[in-house]
Specification:
37% of the residues lie in helices and 24% in strands. With 397 residues, the protein is of the alpha/beta class. Strands 10-11-16-15-14-17 form a 6-stranded antiparallel barrel. Strands 2-1-3-4-5 form a 5-stranded parallel β-sheet, with helices on both faces. The two termini are 28 Å apart.
Length: 397
């Protein structure tokens, strides 16, 4: 998709001002995407775009445009020719004087392209989150003492996300209906030849959750899953793992801040996201082990089926996650604090005393986890997305 760019015009554009167009082509080459010059009306309707100041003498025209520009950060594209930077600085000062956010994109084509990619990535993420709906089936698990009393107001105000509560009885009723929609994930799982009675129950939970997601138009769901152990003698692990692979953010234990964290991480990264527990830190070795039973089916390069860890029943995935760069992330209940750090997955474990998918990662510092953590659950995805997450939160306030 082309990136919209609005060029601030001048009464008389000199023929000598030709350098900017060649310069724009350099940036396009670095971006791997094209710019699309648009008029003011079209620019104002976009979720992300650039304002191009090709030379000096554009300030007065910007003044006439200002009141028609959308209420979002201004990203001013400035070249190193024709007094473009000087005019851009005057314009940005005016923007700041009027209590609006803005930034000048200036420097090498490579540097500017790198910054545009991050900004575009965040704009797409924010658009994806807007009007999203997250369902919480049952109350948060009793042990999530730092993640309770979450009314979801700040998610609506700052992200456009709505959190809706769904009774456990709704899930039980859907489970009793039975059945699920077959797809490539269910076919692959059935091909693992796990005991039929356990697979039937686990896939019926998946079907039940899928119908709840569809009926309520949900983009994410979290379940008070431990209640399923006694009521229907299975777990939600497999159903949540399939939903995650389908692009529905799916978490367990009714953990709302973790579900929101999954939605943010997924929207920013475009990658499958894994909600897990930090289980062991070895500072001497420089490693941390994270584990859980709801790994997205499309995240590992291979997996096997086993039981849910704590109960020894149901069906859970023990996956082998690619050993490459990763990001670990969590946001607080009120979105006023977050943790995002890049690391590397260096191993996959198969220990008896941990949840079924177990990954070992390296980070350069573990003080956060031992001195000021944002609860226990954290979110992992492949790739380094820390810059985009930092930009995402910088735009919230």
């Amino acid at each position: 998709m082309k990136i919209p760019i609005y060029r601030i015009q001048n009464n008389v554009d000199s023929k000598s001002i030709n350098q900017p167009d060649a310069w724009l082509q350099e940036i396009e080459k670095e971006l791997g995407e094209s710019f699309q010059e648009v008029d003011l009306k079209t620019y104002s309707k976009t979720s992300f775009g650039l304002i191009f100041v090709p030379s000096g003498g554009r300030e007065a025209k910007f003044l006439t445009d200002f009141e028609h520009l959308p209420d979002r950060p201004f990203y001013i594209l400035s070249s190193d020719h024709n007094n473009s930077l000087a005019a851009s600085m005057e314009i940005l000062a005016y923007i700041r004087n009027h209590h609006r956010k803005g930034e000048i994109l200036h420097g090498s084509a490579h540097r500017i392209a790198k910054r545009i990619n991050v900004l575009n990535q965040v704009a797409k993420a924010r658009k994806k989150l807007q009007c999203g709906r997250l369902g919480v089936v049952g109350a948060p698990s009793d042990w999530l003492i730092s993640s309770q009393d979450d009314d979801g107001v700040c998610y609506q105000e700052q992200l456009g996300l709505t959190v809706i509560n769904i009774p456990m009885e709704t899930l039980y009723a859907e489970y009793e209906r039975g059945g699920y929609q077959k797809n490539k994930w269910t076919a692959d799982l059935l091909g693992k030849r796990y005991p039929d009675d356990e697979m039937k129950k686990a896939l019926n939970i998946y079907g039940a959750l899928s119908r709840i997601v569809e009926r309520n138009n949900l983009s994410g769901i979290s379940v008070r899953c431990f209640d399923l152990l006694d009521s229907v003698c299975t777990t939600g692990c497999l159903g949540l793992a399939i939903l995650n692979a389908q692009g529905i953010y799916a978490g367990c234990e009714g953990d709302i801040p973790s579900l929101v964290s999954m939605a943010i991480m997924g929207a920013v990264s475009g990658q499958p996201v894994f909600m897990c527990n930090p289980s062991r830190i070895n500072e001497e070795e420089g490693t941390m082990v994270l584990a859980h039973c709801t790994l997205p089916v499309n995240m590992p390069d291979s997996y096997q089926l086993t039981t849910h860890y704590e109960s020894g029943i149901g069906v859970a995935i023990a996956g082998h996650v690619p050993e490459e760069s990763c990001t670990i992330f969590k946001t607080s209940r009120k979105l006023d604090r977050y943790f995002a750090k890049a690391g590397r997955i260096v191993g996959n474990l198969q220990e008896e005393t941990l949840c079924r998918t177990q990954i070992k990662i390296t980070l350069d510092d573990y003080r956060y986890f031992l001195t000021d953590p944002i609860a226990n659950h954290h979110i992992i995805c492949l790739g380094n997305h820390t810059q985009a997450l930092q930009e995402f939160f910088s735009q919230l306030n």
